[in-house]
Amino acid sequence: MDVLVKGMSADQGLLVVGLVDTDLVERARMLHDTYPTASAAFGRIISGALLLSSLLKEGQKLMVQVVGEGPLKEVVAEADWKGRVRGYVYKPHVHLGLKEGKLDVGRAFGNGYLNVIKDLGLRDRYQGSVPLQTGEIATDLAYYLRTSEQIPAAVSLGVHVDTDNAVKASGGFMIHALPDATDEVLEYLEERLKGVRPVSSMILEGAGPKEILDEALGLPYDIIETKEVMYFCPCSKGRVLDALAALGRQDIEEMVRKGETVEIQCQFCKTEYAATKDELLSLLEERGGAEG
Ligand SMILES: [Zn+2]
Q1: pLDDT of the residue at 288
Q2: 24 and 116, same structural domain?
Q3: How far, in Å, CA of 9 to CA of 289, rounded?
Q4: Which of 37, 40, 237, 243 is the most buried (most CB within 10 A)?
Q5: Are 112 and 135 contacting, i.e. CB atoms less than 8 angstroms apart?
Q6: Within a domain: residue 276?
Q7: In this structure, what is the dihedral angle of CA atoms 133, 65, 112, 143, given to the nearest 10 degrees?
Q8: Ligand 1 centroid to residue 266 C-alpha, Å
Q9: Spacing, Cα 234 to ligand 1 middle (Å)
Q10: Are 249 and 195 members of one domain?
Q11: Cα of 267 to ligand 1 centre, how many Å?
């Protein structure tokens, strides 16, 4: 089971979040048929979105999008307040040579941007965007938190892809320095984090999110939330027809003229939907379609 744990340090100065999501990242890898470098990028972005989603309130969701000039081009993950995540990889068949024994996610993205779009409900949207610092995602997310949300934070993400291309470990942790954090604690943490092992190594040895936080922090903290996280796509035929209706009347009429069944695949979960000519006709009648 994939689990996220949220906690608060005893002095209330640090908000900490630990995550192990190996099973859902392996599921995402299989669904999207990603090659190892793309799998590592996808897994880190999925984990990053889940870590950020731990701070959402009921009904809210967010999207982490990384766009670069490199071969991966674009990877997206959406996560909601319940810990449900889905995503897609624009170019899944990317695998580059290793860099110092690690999958070279930074080079696969190249120069680019990390965007965070939050849907806070009631049409309240927030968007933050930062240029990629390393493209390795964890440092980019920390940079985003510091510059866009003014939160001093440390983020670590790790994905281990095995020789059979399967994801054998995925997870991470995030530490926010709250206004009550003392300089003493922050200095301690900065030193401590320099020596922390990669989270993928901890997970390969069987660590859960709590063990990851214990090892990273080395400080007492109280767990305030534990929840299961999962890969989940809420798509349905109705939603696909809604999306078709949004294409506009002319496009739908064109499909009807061709008289073919329209095949649509959900980009997040790869479910195939088919809209028949009759369904297209009733879309035109019932919903009218948007103008143009
Ligand atoms: Zn779907």
Answers
A1: 53
A2: yes
A3: 53
A4: 40
A5: yes
A6: yes
A7: -20
A8: 5
A9: 6
A10: no
A11: 7
The predicted structure's pLDDT at residue 289: 46
Q: Concatenated DSSP letters for 185-228?
A: HHHHHHHHHHTPPPHHHHHHTT--HHHHHHHHH-S-EEEEEEEE
Q: Do 252 and 217 contact (CB within 8 A), yes or no?
A: no
Instruction: Please give the structure tokens belonging to residue 191.
Output: 């030193």
Contact 63, 131 (CB under 8 A): no
Does one domain contain both 283 and 196? Answer: no
User: Do 91 and 144 reside in the same domain of the chain?
Assistant: yes
What is the Å distance from ligand 1's center to 89 Cα? 14
- The residue range of the domain holding 71 is 3-231
For each successive 10 residues of the chain (292 residues), what is the average pLDDT?
Answer: 95 94 98 98 98 96 98 98 97 92 94 96 89 97 96 96 96 95 92 95 98 96 97 91 82 82 89 87 70 46
Structural domains of the chain, count: 2
Which residue(s) pair with 118 in the sheet?
62, 126
Ligand 1 center–CA 27 separation, angstroms: 13
Output the pTM of the full model: 0.93
Helix (H) or strand (E) holding 80: strand 74-80
Largest CA distance in the chain: 71
Give me the amino acid identity at 17.
V
The pair of structure tokens assigned to 48 is 């990053």
In this structure, the answer to whether residues 265 and 161 fall within a common structural domain is: no
Residues 188, 242, single domain; the answer is: no
CATH number of the domain bearing residue 123: 3.55.30.10
Residues with Cβ within 8 Å of 145's Cβ and at least 6 positions away in sequence, in order, are: 151, 152, 153, 155, 176
Cα of 202 vs centre of ligand 1, distance in Å, is 32
Q: How far is CA 49 from CA 63, 142, 166, 210, 231, in A?
A: 7, 12, 21, 19, 12
**153 C-alpha to ligand 1 centroid (Å):** 33
